Amino acid sequence: MKTMTCKELHGPCDELIHGETSEEMIVNSQKHGMEMAGKGDQDHIKVMEEMKHHMDNPEEVKKWMDEFQKYFDTKPLD
Fold first, then answer.
1. Which residues pair with 16 in a beta bridge?
2. Is 10 buried (19+), middle (13-18) or exposed (0-12) by CB count in 10 A?
3. How far apart are CA 43 and CA 20, in angstroms?
4. Which helix (H) or strand (E) holds 31?
5. In order along the chain (78 residues), what is the average pLDDT of each group of 10 residues?
6. Burial code of 44-61, b = ≥16 C-beta within 10 A, e = fewer?
7. Spatial contact of 17 and 28, defined as CB atoms under 8 Å apart
8. What integer pLDDT is reported at residue 78 of this predicted model?
9. 3-state DSSP percent of the chain in helix, strand and coil, to 5
10. What pLDDT does 41 receive?
11. Which of 10, 11, 56, 67 could form a disulfide with 6 if both were Cys (CB 3.0 to 4.6 A apart)?
12. Of 15, 23, 18, nearest to 69 (Cα)?
């Protein structure tokens, strides 16, 4: 298991996000973002809106995923 903050995942807060894999970390980050957006947190809503624009470009998504995987791999196990 590894731990990262919401900020490390390009979010606006210091909430701790956990995951066994980079994919699980992303899913858990998305769940956190959706929860916060559901509570009306404008900072999280803004970040999620910005991310939506990047999701339309498959090359950008692949580049981000590759970079995130490398970063995730450097994080120590809990």
1. 5
2. middle
3. 27
4. helix 22-38
5. 96 97 95 96 94 84 92 95
6. bbebbeeeeeeeeeeeee
7. yes
8. 94
9. 65, 10, 25
10. 97
11. 11
12. 23
